[in-house]
Here is the input.
Amino acid sequence: MSESTAQQQQQHPIGVYIKVWILLFVLSSFSYLVDFFQLQGYLRWTLILIFMVLKAGFIISIFMHLRWERSALQYLVLLPPVAILLLVGMMAIEADYVNALREIFFSEGEPLSPYEQLPYEH
Here is the structure.
């Protein structure tokens, strides 16, 4: 019985793990280089998020063996975070819109530009 159990278990070559480990080290180095070169603004956060998502993807797919699982389990694990990111993105767009409306209607003093005022008469 032990032979049949051993044959059913999947063994992955150690080379795959070493290559992914080296790739994770390189991606982490790039992430630290973003701070070293003192990049600012959207470029900084875009690069940091890209490197973060790539590293998380490699860790999930190789070290947590999701790459070798059935597609139903892959979708079960990957679709909820994607849905959450989409919802957070939609909420961020709405938050910018609400913030712009508050600046238009509740600002004290002069408005930022004449195009932000709505025409109305008293």
The longest helix spans residues 71-106. Helices lie at 2-8, 14-36, 41-63, 71-106.
